[in-house]
Amino acid sequence: MNIHAVTVFCGSKPGNDLAYVAAAEDLGAILAQNGITLVYGGGNKGIMGALANASLQAGGKVIGIIPKLLLEWEAHHEGLTELIITESMHARKLLLYEKCDVAIILPGGMGTLDELFEMLTWNNLKIHNKKVYIINVNGYYDAMIQLLDNMDTQGFMYESWRTRLIECDSILSFKNALSLASE
Questions:
Q1: CATH of 5-100+112-181, one of 3.30.365.10, 1.10.1330.10, 3.40.50.450, 2.60.220.30
Q2: DSSP letter string over 73-120?
Q3: Taking the C-alpha atoms of 158, 99, 170 and 19 in order, what is their torsion angle to the nearest 10 degrees?
Q4: Which of 2, 67, 68, 54 has the alpha carbon at shortest distance from 26?
Q5: Element (H or E) spanning 18, and its range?
Q6: CA–CA separation, 60 vs 140, rounded Å?
Q7: What is the pTM of this model?
Q8: Which of 11, 36, 57, 130 gives 108 a disulfide partner, CB atoms 3.0 to 4.6 angstroms apart?
Q9: Which candidate, 139, 140, 171, 145, places its Cα nearest to that of 28?
Q10: Cα distance between residue 144 and residue 169, in whole Å
Q11: What angle is formed at CA 53 by the lines to CA 176 and CA 39, rounded to 5 degrees?
Q12: Are 47 and 106 in contact (CB under 8 A)?
């Protein structure tokens, strides 16, 4: 699998664990060092800002996609390679997903979960066939993973969620998973 662009969904806040921002910075640098374009939500705060800044500092190409509604809230990043402004959140999510070869989920809030579950639903409905990697920094997504397992056990999944969502516990395990996926 050739990966030219990766969309990363993550928080516009830094969270309470310094490891979240550190993982975002590591990921941004790794993408740039491997010539992979970062596509993300366009903000300059929190994990989003750390991710974009690290990629830019490592010489990467960074495309931000932000709806008009969030321009002031997220304080859009002004130093990006490209900033695309959409009319709606739905248009934003569609572009974020269309512009990537794979998607990565870092810690975030309700917006991040919304984006994750919409992507998984689209995959389940065969609208797209892109892998999604969740980087479960310090167990941030443990409760959600337990819920997904329960949904599967209780018979509400058409296929195992693990066929579409690859869990990694660190940036290193993500790099390893990506290497295995590209062979």
A1: 3.40.50.450
A2: TTTB-SS-SEEEEESSHHHHHHHHHHT-SEEEE-S--HHHHHHHHHHH
A3: -120
A4: 54
A5: helix 18-33
A6: 27
A7: 0.94
A8: 11
A9: 171
A10: 14
A11: 65
A12: yes
Number of residues assigned to the chain: 183
How far apart CA 13 and CA 96 sit, in angstroms, is 19
DSSP annotation of 177 reads: H
The answer to whether residues 29 and 58 touch, using CB atoms and an 8 Å cutoff, is yes
What are the tokens at 83?
Answer: 């900033």
In angstroms, how far is CA 55 from the centroid of its own chain? 14
pLDDT of residue 1: 65
Alpha-carbon distances, residue 67 vs 52, 57, 72, 99, 122 (angstroms): 17, 25, 10, 16, 21
Q: Are 20 and 56 in contact (CB under 8 A)?
A: no
DSSP state of 42: -
- 28 token code pair: 């941004």
- Widest CA span in the chain: 47
